[in-house]
Amino acid sequence: MKRFEELFAPHMDAAYNLARWLTGNDSAARDVVQESALRAFRFLHRFADGNAKAWFLTIVRNESYTWLKASASYHWVAIGDELPEDDAALSHGQSPELLAIHTENAALIQQALRALPPMFREVIVLKELEEMPYKDIALVADIPIGTVMSRLARARAMLKLELLKLHDHE
Amino acid sequence: MNELDCTACQTLVHGYLDKELDTAMTAKVAAHLAECAECARLLDEARLLTVSVKRHAPYYTAPASLTASVFAPVAPRNSALKRWRKWFAPGFSAAALALAMVLYVATPGSEQPLMDEAVSSHVRSLMGEHLNDVVSSDRHTVKPWFTGKLDFSPPVFDYSAQGFPLLGGRLDYLQHQATAALAYGRAKHIINVFVLPTTEADEPPKTRSIRGFNVVSWQANHMRFVLVSDVEKAELETLGQLLRNGA
Fold it and tell me: In sequence order, what are the residues at sequence separation of 6 or more whose Cβ sits closer than 8 angstroms to the Cβ of residue A146?
């Protein structure tokens, strides 16, 4: 119990933050973190040494997806990692775009980020909010390390598009 | 050395921005950026975007009650009865005292309004931020908190092991009396347990449904227990059983 607490208590915020962003609501995030902690506790013997945060967040991420799949409101959207060359999101920006993405409006950013599919939302959360290196993001998101950069590129491009959309609506 | 094209660079600027490229690749990207205004602009945009997200996207910190319940010490089951007695003994004397003091308040036969009031209080507690005055899954924190605020001593136990973690407690006011309200979690649901003194005789548990909520109530040891929640009837009855058994 003591080792368990020492290892994971420092990462409760990270765990809750990820679950909260992935599930989109507080009670689900609490459930996900509770369940993840239970699993971490049960499989503690499998965690040798190394990155407790990445290990814990991997469990949290999996539990979040389990919740997402089970929740009726969620529709699984598969989007490839390839970068389509004619994608508007990746075309080079004009100055109004700079205005939109440099927004000080927290609500807009939150809304735009929530609009991203989970697999893209999670890399933004892990990179910008947790400031994790690519190798840890690869562990948590269960993708090859080489894919992290392209997924982030795509996620940021999509986030920019969402912000532009919201900006136009204002 | 082969030159980078813009397509490759559109992805690589992100690694460049995040300082995740090796030295050779960093030099290549830097060389391309020096010559290609469009890729340079893409980098600027990505940088602005990450700054905006870092500054303004909410970071959700773990609620204290969640951390507390995750790291709650596992209570040994065999000492349950002893602990129950230890905690409940003062309850008897306090309840007896309360009995003398509030004799004139308690009017029998007014059960339905109480249940109604309890349901309303339950709903109110979920609407605002005011579920708990004292947020803790530790009964040794919650129970003493009530001391001095109530003229009786409600039994406080954590049933995390049985799937009903104690979330905290607050003061409420039902039937013109100060009432202890304990909040328990059940999966995604909240259960409010109201405990108030009564002069009436013990009564076995009764389950009813009021405005879509399940309500379980009973009277024991001059205390009236009212459980309100939207969880299944059977689950609410299970918590009722646990409360009656002590721990």
Answer: none
Say which CATH topology domain B66-245 has.
Phosphorylase Kinase; domain 1 (3.30.200)
Q: Does domain A2-70 have CATH number 1.20.810.10?
A: no
pLDDT tens-digit profile of A57-88?
999 999 999 998 888 554 444 444 444 444 44
Interface residue A24 vs chain B (CB under 8 A): no
* Cα separation, B87 vs B153, whole angstroms: 9
Where does A88-169 sit in CATH, by number? 1.10.10.10
User: Closest to A33 (Cβ–Cβ): which among B41, B66, B185?
Assistant: B66
**Chain A CB within 8 Å of residue B1 CB:** no
What's the pTM? 0.55
ipTM for the predicted complex comes to 0.83
Q: What is the edge-to-edge ordering of all strands in the sheet holding B177-186?
A: B134-135, B166-174, B177-186, B189-197, B223-229, B213-220, B203-210
Domain limits, chain A:
2-70, 88-169
